[in-house]
Amino acid sequence: MNAHDADVAIRARGLTRRFGDLVAVDHVDLDVPTRHVYGFLGPNGSGKSTTIRMLCGLLTPSEGEIEVLGLRIPAEAEALRRHIGYMTQRFSLFEDLTVRENFEFLAAIQGVSRPRQRIDELVEQHHFGGLQQQLAGTMSGGQKQRLALACAVIHEPELLFLDEPTSAVDPESRRDFWEKLFELADAGTTLLVSTHLMDEAERCHRLAILDHGVLVADGTPHELTGRLQGRTFIVDSSDPRRAQKVIERLPGVLGVAQIGNHLRVLTAARETDAKGMADACRSIDQALAGAGQHASTRETPANLEDVFVAVTRQETKRPERAA
Ligand SMILES: Nc1ncnc2c1ncn2[C@@H]1O[C@H](COP(=O)(O)OP(=O)(O)O)[C@@H](O)[C@H]1O
Ligand SMILES: [Mg+2]
Question: Are 288 and 295 spatial neighbours (Cβ–Cβ below 8 Å)?
Fold first, then answer.
């Protein structure tokens, strides 16, 4: 690989990790531009954490090359350590220390040069003014998450790895947390964030989709939806669960997901003209009528979830709500 390219924070080629017979990460090529929020989208077990651990230098690859901030990993992992931050879904806080003590302890470990000044800055930026003397263990999930993020950036890393950082918090905390991630990117930090949540993936500047350890697609959310070779339909019907069974058996249907009271259907064929689309809608309605259901089908713009279904050819694990 070339000398350090200042616009690329992470470059991996053929990155592979085996555990016995299992190929957890399978020849992944990755280019993460600096100052981006780069998403890693994939279901449980798709290899997100294993990839991140290799990129940080915590786990040795079975095969492949990695360059992070111009350093060859794992050989130069020690030098990388002070330039990166790492946060996981299990926030590694000291629950029996106060907020301020957590900062002080980490500042010491990281060798932060002017700790008091840096901690005051973090308290201000991350809104811990009134919470400094509170024990970390007594805070809410959202507060712990904010503290974990502030701790992860105490040494002002150029690159931050976040492995499913929002799994344990409520939707409002998730939203605030993402605002913070974009603030960090604006200030010059590169962020690699793994998630299995579509709405989070939609927010990333760029993302990679992993499935069974294979990188199946990457690009901006807009590029990914634009490239989709398929069409998406919304079906309103009297009995969505039964309708789903009928539609799944129709030719060309890649996936059907129940979202609230309607179904979202992805088909393989790309109908180009209005007549083709109308025909496709009618054939879904007719199939459901044949099964004794009244339904109405319309086309809808593709989203990342559709991309995900198309590239993985399986339904996502979106929790179904009672109709
Ligand atoms: N240390 C390990 N030993 C054996 N198998 C592992 C180990 N770590 C991860 N795996 C397996 O590798 C696959 C990918 O796991 P992981 O990277 O944790 O996925 P994700 O983070 O996307 O949920 C899974 O099948 C998992 O069981
Ligand atoms: Mg994981």
Answer: yes
